[in-house]
TrEMBL record:
Organism field: Cohnella xylanilytica
Protein name from the UniProt record: SpoIIAA-like protein
Lineage per the UniProt record: Bacteria, Bacillati, Bacillota, Bacilli, Bacillales
């Protein structure tokens, strides 16, 4: 079920996985970037979910202002919306991957579990059973 779509991303609910899927499409920043994340939190709350699969394979680097916004606002908003497990599919672009990894490292301790993956199926398996031991990267 598609909840939100723009030229920069898609937010949907995966009924089989009982998870929000956030798919990034290229470079987004400021309100465009934030709206995708906020719509994901909104859908998580509406569906009373606890899992997100964030697919950044098609994403780009994250601007400094958005990194700050994530740390100061979004993490709390996502947690309050029910987020407990986030599987992050790494960007295909090396520059984007470095940016995303620097952002995650800069956030410090998170109130939810987050693991990074290169493979969609592995991320899905982890979300289906986050207590299972899988090879995560990052």
């Amino acid at each position: 079920m598609v909840h939100f779509e723009s030229k920069h991303g898609l937010v949907s609910w995966n009924e089989d996985l009982k998870a929000v899927i956030m798919e990034w499409r290229g470079f987004a920043y400021g309100p465009e970037f934030q709206s995708i994340l906020l719509k994901g939190a909104e859908l998580l709350e509406l569906r009373k979910g606890s899992k997100v699969l964030m697919d950044t394979r098609g994403g780009s680097a994250i601007k400094a202002e958005d990194k700050e916004w994530i740390g100061e606002f979004f993490i709390r908003r996502a947690y309050e919306s029910g987020l407990r497990h986030l599987a992050l599919l790494q960007p295909n672009s090396v520059v984007a991957r470095l940016s995303v990894n620097r952002t995650v490292e800069g956030l410090g301790a998170l109130p939810y579990r987050q693991e990074s993956f290169e493979d969609w199926d592995e991320a899905v398996r982890w979300l289906a059973d986050p207590s299972a031991t899988l090879r995560a990267i990052g």
